Amino acid sequence: MIASAYDFPAYSSPFAEHDWHALEHVSGISFHITGNFQRLDMNKKELVEQVAEQANLSRSKAELVVNAFVHQTQESLARGGVVQLIGFGTFSVTDRAARKGRNPQTGQEIHIPACKLPQFKPGNKFRDLIK
After folding, report:
1. How far is CA 52 from CA 29, 69, 124, in A?
2. Residue ranges of the alpha helices (H) in 57-123?
3. Which of 6, 46, 75, 128 is 20 to 30 Å from 27 at the Cα level?
4. Domains and their CATH numbers in the chain
């Protein structure tokens, strides 16, 4: 169920009322209320809708923008690059060393090969918003 936190007046939150307003205004995220806690989940469809609304675009054009961002970010990281969005964060690739692990079913020791993993480091403004 998608709803604003204000649709649930009995809902108690660790955030003050002005914090909810600020978070909704800055992020454009609809709150998903489940049980006794809030989740700020957003799927691709909801992201496209928010981009379309905030940028005054049609949904199809907003979807092109979101897809282009994802594609360009993936392409840059695949080539070993870094995508830095000041105030939001930095996408990069990190190397994970080879290591030994255990098969949970048999307990047998196994070799886990080295690999590269995508990484996201939030920027200062984003980190401050989350605090």
Report:
1. 13, 14, 26
2. 59-78
3. 75
4. 80-131 (4.10.520.10)
Burial letters 72-92, b for 16+ CB under 10 A, else e: ebeeebeeeeebeeeeebebb
Say whether pLDDT at 33 is over 80.
no
67-118 pLDDT, tens per residue? Answer: 999 999 999 999 999 999 999 999 999 999 999 999 999 999 999 999 999 9
Half-sphere exposure of 70 (CA within 13 A, CB side): 9
12: left (phi over 0), alpha (psi -120 to 50) or beta: beta
